[in-house]
Amino acid sequence: MAMMISKFHKLIQSKVVWYIVLGVIVISFVGFFTPTMGDKAARTKEQDAGKLFGETVSRQELRTAYNNIYLWQILTTGRMPEMNDETVRAMEESAWQRLAILRKSAAENILVSDQEVIQQIQRMPIFLNQSNVFDRNAYQTILGQLGVSANQLENLVREQAVLQKLMYRPVQAALISPYELERAYHMYTDRMVLNYAVLPRAQVEKEVTVSTEEAQAFFAENTESFRMPARVRVSYVEYAVADFIDQAEVPEGAALQVYNKNLDRYRVETTGDVAAVEYKPFEEVEAEITGSIKEFSARRLAIEQATSLVADIAPKAQNAKPDFKGAAAAAGLTVKTLPAFGPGDPLKGIDASAPFKQAALGLQDDAYSSFSDAVAGKDKVYVISLEQRYDSFLPSFDIVEKEATKAALARKVSQVLSERSAEIQGALSKALAGGTSFEDAVKPFGLTVETTDEYDLTSQTDHKYSNVLIPSAIMVEQGSLCEPAPVEDGMLFAYVAQRTSADMAVGLPAIRQELISGLSGVRSQRLAADWQAEVMAEAALQVNER
């Protein structure tokens, strides 16, 4: 992280480089902070997004909360979040949670002074120079490139300060007792050797079958899990960034400026400790730098063309309809149409770096929301038009019989595997209590015993079951069974054959603070998550369908 921030600071000293670094970020903000079709957005009918604490939340409030989370991620990490369906859903949930906590804070009258806001902004790593001093030029440049005003940033930082003050209350209980510290020490430093055996899932699968009636019963019990998601069918036109390269201009001296301001990027690595620092000659990297600048300039030209098309598509009079195909034809563009798709479906032939799916699924069947703004990726820029929306629905059994049968079989196999594992665990416990070795105890079940190398919690291992074996034995004493643990190919039974403890009086002082910090952090996160869940339960969130 420190290395990334250091490099980031070096980049912000060059406006030209900032155009390159923030190119994708700025593009991604189309429709977020600086929408290219402000008139269209203003004419779009505002709807309520839902309710919190029984009070209405507008879609604008929800968008603002979503955008603030997005912006804070960039400002605190120096990079844009990787946007996919999972990320979007998580950010939407976080936006609702953010609004709920802020509304709760309003009721509690939590105040943040202007001085607190200023101090926090001036301490943000992204605005510091290489001497870790607030750099006003960097501050203004970054806000300008993100299209965010100083007032917007101050409001965001004020919100974050309120959230931090509220979150401080539940995490004050994250104190660590001496007993917990001792237990953590042994968990962290004890070295163990395990014997283990696996009951193969395949062995159970051979014995289990599912009838049509059982599959139908499973479908009836779990109908909602087979719900087909909402889908859309869209048409689109695309602008290839490569087509604008010849038109792209590179300001005179820009490449040399990038080179001079970012020499460390072109440093030649040497093995000698006292060797003179060497850099790749400018002539060697000039073409690469120029190409990066031209690519960004070409992308901006493509966005401008796409934005111009969006203006031509928009209705020209009240009650008129958008003319996507007519505008595309007039511009000499080929309209392509995709088969209907939902959130989890792959899109063939679409630039994966573009938020195409997100934009398409957000289109609505009305005059001003049935077509998108410019949707930009690394290699292509799109304008999308809605052809048809298909609502989510519950299918009949005959449509999903194959999937229902497979799911019913998987559940039945898991049930049988669990029952058999309980029987084996009981038999192993009884045999071990009678003095039988683990190896002899598993023989009646035809299982093969394996033995691990000696390891501790920090050991680096590529053992097939390490992610299960290591945590399952953390709290288990020598000569005892671990709880059966499911693994990909069956159920795992483990026995602690050896556990060696290090002298706590000697080892604990060296890692005491590290353990306390780790334990406090984990407990703080848990307490904070519990408190947030309580707030959301109190808020009684109601989400309106779009």
Describe this structure in words.
- The chain is of the alpha+beta class.
- The two termini are 39 Å apart.
- It has helices spanning 2-12, 15-21, 23-28, 38-43, 59-77, 85-108, 114-123, 136-146, 150-171, 178-189, 201-205, 212-221, 254-261, 282-313, 324-330, 356-361, 401-433, 438-442, 466-472, 504-539, and strands at 48-52, 55-58, 191-200, 231-240, 267-268, 278-279, 336-337, 375-376, 380-390, 450-451, 485-487, 490-500, 542-543.
- The strands form four sheets. The chain has a four-stranded antiparallel beta sheet, with helices on both faces. It has a four-stranded antiparallel beta sheet with strand order 7-4-9-8.
- α6 (85-108) packs across α20 (504-539) and α13 packs across α14.
- The radius of gyration is 30 Å and the shape is globular.
- Order of strands, widest sheet: 10-3-12-11
Largest sheet: 4 strands, antiparallel
User: So how many helices?
Assistant: 20
Into which percent range does the helicity of residues fall? 40-55%
Number of strands: 13
Classify the beta-strand content into a percent band: 5-15%
Please tell me how large the radius of gyration is. Answer: 30 Å
- Extract low-pLDDT stretches: 1-46
Given helix and strand content, the structural type is: alpha+beta
Gross geometry: globular
Give a summary of the structure in a few sentences.
With 546 residues, the chain is of the alpha+beta class. The chain is built from 20 helices and 13 strands. A hairpin with a 2-residue loop joins strand 11 and strand 12.
